[in-house]
UniProtKB/TrEMBL annotation:
The lineage of its organism: Bacteria, Pseudomonadati, Bacteroidota, Flavobacteriia, Flavobacteriales. It holds the Pfam family E3_binding. Belongs to the 2-oxoacid dehydrogenase family. Residues 2-77, 125-200 form the Lipoyl-binding domain. Its EC number is 2.3.1.-. Residues 219-237 have a biased composition (Basic and acidic residues). This is Dihydrolipoamide acetyltransferase component of pyruvate dehydrogenase complex. CDD domains: lipoyl_domain.
Amino acid sequence: MAEIINMPRLSDTMEEGTVAAWLKKVGDKISEGDILAEIETDKATMEFESFHEGTLLYIGIQEGQTTKVDELLAIIGEPGEDISGLLNGESAPKPEVKEVTKEAANTPVETKNEAPANAELPEGVIVVAMPRLSDTMEEGTVATWLKKVGDKVSEGDILAEIETDKATMEFESFQSGTLLYIGLQEGESAKVDALLAIIGPAGTDVSGVAANFSSSVPAKKEEAPKQEAPKVEPKVEAPKAEAKVAKPVVTSTSNGRLFISPLAKKIAEEKGINLNQVQGSGENGRIVKTDVENFVPAASGAASVGKFVPAGQEDFEDVPNSQMRKAIAKALTNSKFTAPHYYLSVEFDMENAISFRTQFNSIPDTKISYNDIVVKACALALKQHPQVNSQWFADKMRLNNHVHIGVAVAVPDGLVVPVVKFASEQSLPQIGAAVRDLAGKAKNKKLTPAEMEGSTFTVSNLGMFGIDTFTSIINQPNSAILSVGNIVEKPVVKNGQIVVGNTMKLSLACDHRTVDGSTGAQFLQTLKGYIENPVTMLV
């Protein structure tokens, strides 16, 4: 029987996917685990494996095209099988949302029919629902199944890897038995508490349970545009030889394809590096992150220049928005237009901070940055001004007595905010080490949910890019964010004399619902004392 393959949800915030390359063409034999296509998500370009066996009968989305999650991607079945009914939407396999109490189970079941609820459970059968693996998680995506139907499952065994809104996490079973049914295939998503799987005694017939329990719709079941019913045997171009595979397990072959990890590909795109010139050091010649970061282009007179356009001729290029960019746009728009922002700008004398950092870094094996000094100073100032260290909620305002500072980190396709926990209690070297570790994890997409949760205040620093002053959008539910500019050498007036000095401009964006102007100003005065006299932070 033919199986419809929908656009999978390959990242926690993915709403649409773009087919970067098809690795199979219509008529090809497909085995379970074969790579069908490379799909660009809001995080990276990832390989999409088949969970079914058969022949690829139909491809719905061509290379370079984009569609919403859960729209028709391909159909796999028996050679010559009639799939016209599926193409006409007669049996769309889109799961329906069914709310399930968390007590009921722990793992989601993918059902492709709309069905009544509540079938009686046979003895010993457990329905496992999609778990809530992070505090803000509303839906999850099955990244990988570590068990297959028919496998024995013991309590504590890892059933699957599930992508949340924060990271990919292992999900262990709290039951023992045989895995009788899997509802969500790898790459598919469902809301928390939707059916994920069924565990029970071997040989138990659970088809009725699966059929009578509507699984959760993948994330947002919007009225996705209906796929036009193309002919059953459409023309599909074979995968291009230069398609860049982005999963760490890829290996190079002799057919001219270029193999590269997702992170390395993103970094290369950001830096404009020609991957054909990069020598891969990974397994079987795969290009990895360090290869791209350490790449030095060969000396050449051909400098990178923009496209030549004849004078007087209009020319443009439409670049589709990546999924990560869309997610960032949504979050920032929500913050900008729900929190009444206002801004307080100051300029600090950095002479003492420069001397302090120079002396501090003279200690063997010690290195702190100006950003570390700012983070530490903010942490101490926030202890004295809990109103700025607050969070706004619909029914209350929370004044935090602990200080967790989020540090904005740019990654190839957006911005993440890892959190330095209990920053006021850490020394400058500890803060420096923590920030470097978190920034490294952010750029390698290794941050865990715990490392991105709980910030009470945020620091965004663009000084290293030569930016003198800027304003930021508040990272909700925080009440404020500090924008840090470059240290600038300029004429200043001291004791009535014009002398050469070094100053730094900062801008504090505040949520007027929680932080009044005078409160923000007092916080900046305290911050000024610490930054202009950093030795006071050691007391």
